[in-house]
Amino acid sequence: MNPRHSTLPAVSRRTLLAGTAAGATTALVAPGVAGLTTARPELTSGLQFGDVGTDAGIVWSRSSVPGRMLVTLTDDTGRSRRLEGPWADASRDHTAKVQLTGLRPGARHEVTVSFVDKEGREGERATGSFTTGDHTDGATSFVWTGDTAGQGWGINPDLGGMRTYAAMAATEPDFFIHSGDTIYADGPLEETVVEADGQVWRNLLIDEVTEVAQDLRQFRGRHRYNLVDDNVRHLYSRVPVIAQWDDHETTNNWYPGEVIDDERYDRERRVDVLASRARRAFFEYQPLADGHGRKFWTPAGGGRIHRTIRRGRHLDVFSVDMRTHKGTNTANTEDRTTPLLGRSQLNWLIRELRGSRATWKVIAADLPLGLVVPDGELAQEGVGNADPGRPLGREQEIAVLLSAIKHHGISGVLFVTADVHYCAAHHYDPSRAAFKDFEPFWELVAGPVNAGTFGPNDLDGTFGPRVEFQKVAGEPGESPRAGNQFFGHVDIDSDGVLTASLRDAEGAVLWSRQMQPAETGPIIDTGVSTGSALRTARARVDALLGV
Predict the structure, then answer these.
(1) Strand partners, 308
(2) Is the distance from CB of 440 to CB of 390 less than 8 angstroms?
(3) DSSP state of 259
(4) pLDDT of 22-68, one tens digit each?
(5) CATH numbers and ranges of domains, the chain
(6) Which runs of E-coded beta strand occur in 75-198?
(7) Are 69 and 83 contacting, i.e. CB atoms less than 8 angstroms apart?
(8) What would the pLDDT profile of 102-117 be if each residue is shown by its tens digit?
(9) What is the number of H-type helices and E-type strands within the chain?
């Protein structure tokens, strides 16, 4: 056969991988053959568990064809139950979730997932497992990081893929906090990239990652791309995730109402439109509900990213959303409060912290508190504003939060975050700060997990941060091959003693600190409503600022 006149399509490496990522089977079929039987449902992207607390969680998967999700749940006593999930079709990119309730606290649970098609045929099965939080012993551990497939560094098969995910899995944590930038919708990948030292980085590709994401198909494809990686799929099949979002799920440094001035966006530049598509893809592909744990995201109903996950006697996790309610990126020096969390979320966070009886309250933030993160020459992307004086702009919300933590006697607060593409341990103390109405606390920064490495950023002195440790890139945008990829690890023993560490791409410990639980007793409910608590904290901060 003359290949120039062949009716069979050429199969490129990219097309083949795209078919694999979508769960398709590439086959050459002779012309005229009819009546082919459709394939049984395959699991194109493995399975994920999310938001697993003491007695509930979520399981996620994706089918290659329309079908109904089936879940078999078995606990460590051998008791099994069969759950029927939603119908997965093109309206949700064939993704589906099932909420798991009535779980045994402190137990290992095994979950088998499959899909059954309209003809009643069950397809491929996959099995994973997770451990629920424990009310009695309370010992637990977790890892966190951020920034997946950024700055042009995607899945490199020559290096074994996204290997830092394997290093995290090797610590056998009870759960994983992805602190945001779960994808890089604004960062196209190329097949090869020449690194600074002349080595060639080779990316696996699918079509959706080769240009900036503007339509829903491209946003979905970005999430699906990461799940091609074996290391990612292995971790997610055994370690439940608490997924957060930051900016790159949509586009760099975005805020509501923005219109992008970037010629790469040739079909849509309104951030609100892009963010709506990005949010839909995020909820379709990440194993989380709406924040209340009762219903899932729908195109009509939206969904809430900030939520509380209770992991038992010694740990509650408060996942915040510092993107949805954010104000315009300005110099961040306004005398008035400008939104970052927004009033409703700040109210929620103070209420949840006050109600927590856990030894440790981990606030999972998608932006650091005391680092200067510029957006261009004049504007600021984050909390800090490079002014070490009294709280201004977005800093005022943080001042209200820290003041409320102090005056309500809330102990054991630890902030974990990512975003800046290097790792650091920051200690905040009012004796070093311009704003003094708070108790000392730690903020630990990790990441990237598979992206370019940068740093360090300048400190903003308003809340008195001091760098106790940091490890940064050898050069800006450094390739993951250099090994400067970072994650954090926290272990809490049955006595409530917390050991935090920062680790590199191979899991080697770079910095570690043991923290004792607070000696004060449980928080006593004063009977003051949360609304009053927020108003009191706001009034106290206003008085301190002379407003």
Answers:
(1) 318
(2) no
(3) B
(4) 433 322 222 333 344 568 999 999 999 999 999 999 999 999 999 99
(5) 40-132 (2.60.40.10), 133-545 (3.60.21.70)
(6) 80-88, 95-100, 108-116, 126-131, 140-145, 175-178, 192-194
(7) no
(8) 999 999 999 999 999 9
(9) 8, 24
